[in-house]
Design goal:
Chain A: GO terms for molecular function: oxidoreductase activity, acting on the aldehyde or oxo group of donors. The complex is a heterodimer. Chain A is an alpha/beta fold. Chain A contains 13 helices and 17 strands. The mean pLDDT of chain A is 95. In chain B, 12% of the residues lie in helices and 15% in strands. Chain B is built from three helices and five strands. In chain B, the strands form two sheets. In chain B, strands 2-5 form a two-stranded antiparallel sheet. Chain B has a two-stranded antiparallel sheet with strand order 3-4. The chains are: A alpha/beta, B alpha+beta.
Chain lengths: 408, 137
């Protein structure tokens, strides 16, 4: 634990980046490698301030690119340290090669990913294309809806990833600007409480343990590469009970409840929107307002994007008649990833709801309560007819004539 | 590690494809312990023979060698066996036949020379060249 502690108020006004930085400080990270990029810059900037003022005992390495940042993290983690970094968009894209190294080497690093659109065209605002880019990298991915979530989940990311059944790196996602730059009231834990919750870092096969020399980053060909990947997949699947346990412990500590699949008004709902990030909270407002119109609307969001909670989602969605899967990333010639995942969860279930795929909010385009209410109304019609009117996929909110694809 | 790594299932492998170098904790001073006295793991590169890549091999002539250790320093595979600063020979299990040891050998004639892999070492020693005179290429 850091030698100097910070006096925090019971309620602080923090933006998402501050939440990340405070969580990293409280976790007493050994090494943070930093190559700042909008909108995650303030995460490492705040952390650097804590470091300069003596609130952090670990190392703060300034590197020459995001590729180097993640490489430094992998090296430090292999050496036996607790490591973290933050990035967004193009930086994340540059990190991708090393993300696979990190998860394949089973190093429980934490990456604070502040979601932003991928170029071109260049855009600093939020969408989920960088989150989607990393989805097969073998990292556990947590998703926050607001600043409080960002703080809580970044803290929990350490505990989940470092669990002996898991030993995998974790990405803590938050929406660029919407969460990262919007100051909200956050209830932080005391330094000591937060650190004790996560616990001391226990390295496995540390390179700096000279009494047991070990080779990291080895080559495996057809003879056992497959087996290692199988082991990695098994560890990702094993993360579900660990996440549940950590969420439960966190609830006992703070009273704040987290679920693998977050739902709002799901009881008796006919229609549901499935989305990630800040849209969840906007959609809950829309769903509540629609009660007056007699539309039983629910909002569902997987708290984990990886491992994807297929079984849990399928159980939750059994009584829903129509679903809109909202993907905040350019679809690139197919349906959105979330639609794909949810379809995969529901295809073998008895009651298969009709499903729309909405591509929305690219490059920071806003989605409003008003628009979400319209989407729910469309879904209500689908539920009534038992089929989708029009095409399956629609690019919602794009200027010009309606753009939609994939007819039944 | 009791089971051979080739017989291991996915659930038995060390996570992260980490390879242990030694069978147990190293409680001796590595620098003072000769390679043959160390307890290697199955997964150590010591046990991974790569000498079969070779098509030509270095042959060592002990009568010409001055124990300068140049070959030992430059060998990229630590395939030169040296004990107490004395050249002992070539580890053919790990030598890949790159010929760097021959290049850096300073004696006249060279005390290490490359021969065809199929050549027997004792036959090779009979074919050693004469000492070159000054100015001779």
């Amino acid at each position: 634990m850091n030698s100097k502690q910070m006096e925090l108020n019971e309620v602080e006004v923090w933006d998402g980046n501050t939440c990340n930085a405070q969580a990293l400080r409280q976790a007493s990270v050994d090494v943070v490698a930093a190559y700042p990029i909008t909108p995650s810059t303030n995460t490492v900037e705040n952390y650097a301030t804590f470091h300069a003022n003596g609130y952090v005992d670990g190392e703060f390495i300034m590197v020459e690119s995001e590729h180097a940042a993640m490489s430094a993290c992998v090296g430090a983690a292999a050496a036996g340290g607790r490591v973290a970094t933050a990035t967004s968009s193009q930086g994340c894209a540059l990190m991708v090669e090393v993300l696979y190294q990190c998860s394949g080497m089973r190093l429980p690093a934490v990456l604070c990913l502040v979601n932003r659109a991928l170029a071109a065209p260049l855009n600093v605002n939020g969408d989920h294309s960088d989150m989607y880019l990393t989805r097969d990298a073998g990292w556990i991915q947590l998703d926050s809806f607001n600043a409080q979530n960002a703080y809580d989940l970044t803290l929990m990311a350490f505990k989940i990833g470092e669990h002996m059944d898991v030993r995998l790196p974790v990405i803590s996602n938050q929406d660029g600007f919407l969460t990262s730059h919007t100051a909200q009231t956050v209830r932080p834990l005391k330094d000591e409480v937060a650190y004790n919750f996560i616990g001391d870092y226990v390295p496995v096969n540390a390179m700096l343990d000279f009494s047991k020399p070990v080779t990291h980053g080895v080559q495996t060909e057809h003879d056992w590469h497959f087996e290692h990947k199988a082991k990695q997949h098994a560890a990702l699947q094993a993360a579900f009970p660990v996440v549940e346990e950590v969420f439960k412990e966190f609830k006992e500590l703070t009273g704040r409840e987290y679920n693998i699949v977050e739902t709002h008004n799901l009881e008796g709902a006919d229609v549901a929107i499935i989305c990630l990030g800040t849209t969840y909270e906007t959609a809950t407002i829309a769903a509540d307002e629609l009660k007056e119109e007699g539309i039983k609307a629910a909002v569902v969001s997987p708290r984990l994007f990886r491992p994807f909670p297929l079984t849990q989602l399928a159980q939750k969605l059994q009584n829903v008649k129509a679903i809109a899967c909202m993907d905040r990333s350019a679809p690139g010639g197919t349906v959105g990833a979330l639609y794909n995942e949810v379809a995969g969860a529901l295809i073998n279930t008895e009651a298969r709801p009709v499903m729309r795929n909405l591509i929305y909010g690219l490059g920071g385009r806003d989605i409003t309560v008003h628009e979400l209410k319209d989407i729910f109304r469309d879904l209500a019609k689908d539920a009534e007819n038992g089929k989708i009117t029009g095409k399956i996929q629609r690019l919602h909110g794009v200027r010009g004539p309606e753009l939609s694809f994939y007819e039944l | 590690m009791s089971k051979s790594i080739k017989d291991m299932g996915w659930d038995e492998l060390v996570p992260g494809a980490a390879l242990y170098s030694f069978d147990s904790n190293v409680d001796y001073l590595m620098a003072e312990t000769q390679p043959e006295d160390r307890t290697y793991c199955e997964t150590n590169s010591k046990n991974a023979y790569v000498g079969d890549w070779r098509v030509i091999k270095p042959v060592w002539n002990s009568e010409l060698c001055i124990d300068c250790q140049n070959c030992w320093v430059f060998c990229p595979d630590t395939a030169i066996i040296s004990r107490e600063k004395e050249m002992k020979g070539v580890d053919y299990d790990h030598c890949k036949g790159c010929g760097i040891c021959v290049q850096v050998c300073p004696t006249n004639p060279k005390s290490l020379l490359m021969f065809n892999e199929t050549e027997k070492n004792e036959d090779a020693l009979t074919k050693w060249p004469e000492k070159k005179k000054k100015g001779e290429e």
